[in-house]
Amino acid sequence: MTKKAYLKAQSKDWKNAKQQWKELLQILHENYKIKQEGNNEIFLNVPKQSEADIEIFLIGKGSLEKYHVQLWNYVFEGENQMRSKRLYTLTGVINYVDSLLEAVRMNEKMKKLG
Question: What's the Cα-to-Cα distance from 22 to each of 36, 41, 56, 59, 97, rounded to whole Å?
Fold first, then answer.
């Protein structure tokens, strides 16, 4: 592979990623409560958890993955690490966001049960 071909392909990937980012934002606005939005990043509300949020951002040009999703300010019972993933597709982002929200919901249910 030549450097010129690589840079051209990388440029196309970045252009496509930015377009998909706009489409992802539209999906998120239509289906989730937005806590805050910035340049190439968005924070989603985690229901009944005022301190917690889910951050999603567009990863820069040099990465093969396009999106980073991370749960902030929430600790699961028995865990001491943050949950985060780098993803390639919009479907992957939505699936991971939904799995985080469900995990928080189940964790809170288990806390109440004791």
Answer: 16, 11, 13, 14, 17
